[in-house]
């Protein structure tokens, strides 16, 4: 089994319309590489069901979800320190443009 060498952390708060776009972009990129990575989504107490939105992507992507009980916009929690040591981290923030 190949070791995870990259964690993509996505903090989200009430972004039901844009989270699937972000995950689709990652899925397209995954098809172009053999890089072993995980996606860590940190839900900051959104008003929608994040689990329902990510469900179709979990079959194709290695997704970990952490749901914060209260809003904490400055933190994207991954809980896998062993993968973060000596690895790159891409932090993707979803903005309303």
What would your notes on this structure say?
18% of the residues are buried. Strand 1 (6-12), helix 1 (19-30) and strand 2 (37-44) form a beta-alpha-beta unit. The radius of gyration is 13 Å and the shape is globular. The longest helix has 12 residues, at 19-30. It has one domain. It has 97 residues and is α/β, with parallel strands linked by helices. The chain has helices at 19-30, 50-58, 81-84, and strands at residues 6-12, 37-44, 63-68, 88-91. The chain is built from three helices and four strands, in the order βαβαβαβ. The N and C termini lie far apart (40 Å).
Summarize the structure.
With 97 residues, this protein is an alpha/beta fold. Helices cover 26% and strands 26% of the residues.
Low-confidence stretches: 81-97
* Mean pLDDT over the full residue set: 75
Share of residues in strands:
25-35%
Structural class: alpha/beta
Question: Helices and strands, in N-to-C order?
Answer: EHEHEHE
Question: Any chance you could write out the topology, listing elements then pairs?
Answer:
Blueprint: E1 6-12, H1 19-30, E2 37-44, H2 50-58, E3 63-68, H3 81-84, E4 88-91
Parallel strand pairs: 1-2, 1-4, 2-3
């Amino acid at each position: 089994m190949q070791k995870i060498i990259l964690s993509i952390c996505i903090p989200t708060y009430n972004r039901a319309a844009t989270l699937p776009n972000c995950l689709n972009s990652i899925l397209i990129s995954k098809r172009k590489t053999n890089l072993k990575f995980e996606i860590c989504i940190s839900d900051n107490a959104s008003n929608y069901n994040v689990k329902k939105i990510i469900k179709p992507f979990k079959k194709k992507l290695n997704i970990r979800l952490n749901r914060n009980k209260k809003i904490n916009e400055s933190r994207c929690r991954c809980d896998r320190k062993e993968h973060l040591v000596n690895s790159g981290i891409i932090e993707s923030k979803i903005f309303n443009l």
